[in-house]
Design brief:
single chain; 205 residues; alpha+beta; 10 helices; 5 strands; 44% helix; elongated
Length: 205
């Protein structure tokens, strides 16, 4: 297992980076967000990595933070999701947004990712429930994670779903909606949650 790579950037493509480690170039596939934050050719870089081994395939996947790698490993544990699809998910959603989407059973958010249909999104929710609490951390919806806090009541969950639907109807993208609701009161009513989300979407948070 190659846990991480530390070296200099030798080359960058649209979805991968070549890292020069003591004269050896490692081709590493990375999420688009990670790629954007890596810097230019010649810059020093450290990536947390996962070595994927199959009979006819050896591939390295890299991540800016351990939480990204943890989320990636959780994703590829879901039946039907391989490394490329997992990478697409993490290119569209941060680990916190992914954990929130799973915790709140947000099928619309997950199925907005290229390559993820409604059935796959539902399977992700089913198989990842309880596995992403450490990734979610303190930035997610109170009570939405597992292990700490109380679960949201059915009424609160309904209010959250109503607000999400309203924001979708206003034309906001699933990722924008998820980000707007991060940190919201899990027991809040529809009006309060909508006010909170619109405040964040307006840049006031």
């Amino acid at each position: 297992m190659i846990a991480f790579l530390a070296g200099t950037i030798a080359d960058k493509t649209t979805d991968a980076v070549v890292i020069d480690v003591s004269g050896v170039g490692y081709l590493v596939s990375v999420p688009t967000g990670t790629l954007a934050g890596l810097g230019a050719v010649g810059d020093d870089v450290l990536l947390y990595t996962y070595l994927h081994l199959r009979e006819n395939e050896i591939a390295l996947y890299g991540f800016a933070e351990p939480a990204e790698r943890t989320a990636f490993l959780a994703l590829i544990s879901v039946s039907g999701i391989g490394p490329k699809v997992a990478l697409a998910v993490l290119s569209a959603l941060t680990p916190t947004l992914l954990a929130n989407a799973v915790a709140t059973e947000d099928v619309a958010m997950l199925s907005s990712v290229s390559g993820i249909g409604k059935k796959t999104a539902q399977r992700m929710i089913l198989e990842l429930k309880g596995k992403l609490g450490a990734v979610l951390g303190a930035g997610g919806l109170p009570g939405a994670g597992t292990g700490t806090g109380a679960a949201a009541t059915p009424a609160a969950a309904s209010a959250l779903a109503e607000v999400q639907a309203a924001l979708f109807a206003m034309g906001f993208a699933p990722v924008e909606v998820a980000e707007a609701l991060v940190g919201a009161d899990a027991e809040g009513n529809t009006a309060a949650l909508l006010k909170y989300a619109l405040h964040r979407l307006g840049g006031g948070a």
